[in-house]
Design brief:
By secondary structure, the protein is of the alpha/beta class. Helices cover 31% and strands 25% of the residues. It contains 8 helices and 7 strands. It has a 7-stranded mixed β-sheet, sandwiched between helices. Strand 4, helix 3 and strand 5 form a beta-alpha-beta unit. Helix 4 runs antiparallel to helix 8 and helix 6 packs antiparallel against helix 8. The longest helix is centred in the last third of the chain and has 19 residues. The radius of gyration is 21 Å and the shape is elongated.
Length: 249
Amino acid sequence: MSSGAPRFPDAALEWLVGERTDRHVLTLGPGAGLPRKLARRGQHVWCIVDDDHDLNPKPDLPELQYVVARPESLPFEPCQFDVVLAHQILHKLAPGLVLGEFARVLKPGGWVGASYLVRDDSVPWVRRLVAVMRTVDPNAMSADVGASAIQTLISSKYFPRHEQRDFRIWVPVTRQELIAMAASQPRVAALPELGRDRLLTAVGAIYDGASAGSELRLPYQLSCYRAYVDHDELTTPIVLSDDALIIPL
């Protein structure tokens, strides 16, 4: 949307996976470049992908491995990971299957680190922008895409305890970029030319009124959760062998 997409804060990533740099982390997809960031920190990272597009060797990051699989059916033995990291993805998964899988592959004391990046609508000019966009599409710029998925996670019997921490991110946006963002919305693009021009003029006026001649910053909130596993709730009990906490290579 803007020349600088929201950057995942280092402090948020450290909070999600913990301060130790020797953890075994399973990431669900390569979103926001998190697997590579973790590998550069020295973490041992396995990244689940849908196909073999990302399976090319990464000689610069031997700590990072890609695995073609579905999160609902993970190809790992029990108790293999310290953290399962899920950014912007839980709402796409089947909770009745995936939460049990997360619990199964986590070590005792491990957790799911889940996060969602949403626009912060508490800023007045952003609320005005949302109001204008919703004259065309009542669901435009909805900020609650992951709310129900997070609620399902922290309400699960497998994850009875959780913590939450929020991080605010400000992304510079120019007048042209804000108008382009509005114009790219499907309902706006489908408008007759006159109606589309009127709406985009209103968007430009919002920018002009809020910026006072300078560049605006679009506010986002990154909501992060750590949901801790409870193996007592698994249907099939996990029996730890002597090498249960070692990942076979």
